[in-house]
Amino acid sequence: MPENLLKGKKGIITGALDENSIAWKTALKAKEQGAKFVLTNAPIAMRMGAINELAKECDTIVIPADATSVEDIEKLYSEAKEYLGDNFDFLLHSIGMSPNIRKGREYGDLNYDWAMKSYDISALSFHKMMQVAEKMDIMNEWGSIVGLSYIAAQRVYPFYTDMADAKALLESIARGFGYRFGKNKKVRVNTISQSPTVTTAGSGIGGFSSFFNFAESLSPLGNASAEACAEYIVTMFSDYTRMVTMQNLYHDGGYSCTGISEEIMEKLVDQK
């Protein structure tokens, strides 16, 4: 990548849990490209991860915040602005969790209280972050806001259960607020649908390894790595993508456009 792609830019990166997470790798790439930012995660997630180690490596601070709480987001933005000394040029929403998936509930047997929690954490928190940002007038003109989605928002993946609904809502919110933020402040809002990626969150889904191998066989370029996704996110934060907004962008090695591959056809023939 070109050097100093984000020189002078400031922002917030959410959801860095451990060195396998996309948000973690995005923080390292953003630092490498000259950005200044603060890290944030929910208090419970901070106890599970090693985000303080990342903060030291990136020469920054961690501000705990529950992204489902408007009050926490307001506090996060105020403290981050004070630390950074300016408004924000970028925000990364890398937040998602489904109690139904964690506890093995199938899509036809959802616990609805848990489902509402999934939607709040994984999608409505995106709206809350942008609503608070707009009301506080905390985003600079031509800023960039990115949320991490998944192709299950568009197509059926039975193992993804209520998270598929949450991601569909996330993408709708990106379009709705992308229009609003674009008209009012020239801020762009996009989501990125990444390949299945070996992260703590992704690998916790049942059947993940089999699907990872399937996607690898289907994608002409193979699965995109978390590090490659981080580079893509940094590009979306940069001025090189100023006119891209309200999009769901596939970063998946061509998986989303491929019907079938020779490798999969050969395996099907071998099974006969």
Automatic annotation (TrEMBL):
Pathway membership: Lipid metabolism; fatty acid biosynthesis
Pfam families named among the record's database cross-references: adh_short_C2
Enzyme class: oxidoreductase
InterPro entries: Enoyl-ACP_Rdtase_NADH, NAD(P)-bd_dom_sf, SDR_fam
Gene3D superfamilies associated with the record: NAD(P)-binding Rossmann-like Domain
Keyword Cell inner membrane attached: no
Record's keyword annotation contains Phosphoprotein: no
Reactions this protein catalyses: a 2,3-saturated acyl-[ACP] + NAD(+) = a (2E)-enoyl-[ACP] + NADH + H(+)
E.C. designation(s): 1.3.1.9
Superkingdom per UniProt: Bacteria
Keywords of the record: Fatty acid biosynthesis, Fatty acid metabolism, Lipid biosynthesis, Lipid metabolism, NAD, Oxidoreductase
Stated family: Belongs to the short-chain dehydrogenases/reductases (SDR) family. FabI subfamily.
Protein name: Enoyl-[acyl-carrier-protein] reductase [NADH]
Annotated organism of origin: Echinicola arenosa
